[in-house]
Each structure stands twice: as structure tokens, then as C-alpha cells.
Prior knowledge:
Elements: H1 2-16, H2 26-68, H3 74-80
Helix pairs in contact: 2-3
Amino acid sequence: MVNAFSNFAALYASYFYPSTDGPRYVKANILNVAFSGLCILMATGLRILLKRRNSNLNKYAALDMAEENTTRGSKTLAYAEPMQCHPDYRFQL
Length: 93
């Protein structure tokens, strides 16, 4: 998805800098700042999501260890399966 959107930039970027807006190109600079801000927000959101998933995996593994004496118990497997990850996997932050 990232590659698709980054290649899409080649199509619209040339329209950000019409010669009538020069030499300051205010519209283009505002759009660049907006896209950079959107990127920061999306990266922060992804970090929050992955941190929450890691804590849930740890919580379910602890519950399974207490109940079933294994970290790969039924609760951990049920939580990890929709994410298509191994129950012992933790996302790198």
C-alpha cells in the first residue's frame, strides 16, 4: 500500500507546482506539510495499535499460563489467529 501511494505521488506532484504559483509555491508547501503530518499521525496510530496488540498477547499468554500451564493456550491462539501471527510473536516497536 505504501509503494502504491508513493508511486501515485509522481502523478499529482507536478500539479502542485504550477509556474503561476512561483517562486514561493505556497499551495505546494502547505500540501507537503499536510501530507507529512498525515504520515506522522498514521505512524503514531500504527505504533499505538501494535503496542496494544502486544499487551493483549502478553495478557492472554499470562492467563493461559495460569490456567493451562502453557503460553500457547486457547485464549492466546484465539487472539493471534485473526492477526495471522504465531502466539509467541511480538510486534517490534
